[in-house]
Amino acid sequence: VAPVGPVVPVFPVAPVTPVAPVAPVSPVAPVGPVVPVFPVAPVTPVAPVGPVVPVSPVAPVAPVVPVSPVAPVGPVVPVSPVAPVGPV
Fold this sequence. Notes:
88 residues; little secondary structure; 0% strand; rod-shaped
């Protein structure tokens, strides 16, 4: 029977590296209060435009009446001399 060789020692198993602990999750900051939205001021209604006052018609200007030309004065008629009265 062949002689049994020396027993090869078994190398120790390397220890398992511990897993790094998971960092704790930071707490979520609380959400601040919701600021209420101010109500929108109602739109002021536009005042209605009053009725348009009609413009009175301008009275027509009367036509200018032309002045009649002055009739020219005729020539002065000389007075005939009075005939001398004869003897009575």
